[in-house]
Amino acid sequence: MHQIKRLISGVNHSTGKEWLKLDIVLSMESKKHNSVYYYPIVLWNARAKSAAETIGCNDYITIEGQITTNEYVNNKDGSTNYFINLTGYNYEVLVKAARNTPDVDEEDVPF
Question: Which superfamily does 2-97 belong to?
Fold first, then answer.
């Protein structure tokens, strides 16, 4: 079970594919120290659209997906940089966080 900390969505302008990036947090506790890790996971197309409509920050989810690694050479100094991509395929909302939506009287809206 992972907690969502941030959601960002958009459209890839070159391909037209919708995407949703969600940052999940994983806390590791031990006797010596506690660590918190953030992992960005990207969902694409219909899954991205569905997730954007159903999940929010602080929700707890399980997610299935794929881990891939890539590398590129930095043109400035010739060093090789490595990175990991996490792509989600399926997700399930386990716990929905309470949403604080203030009651607004229509007369209070300035337009």
Answer: Nucleic acid-binding proteins (2.40.50.140)
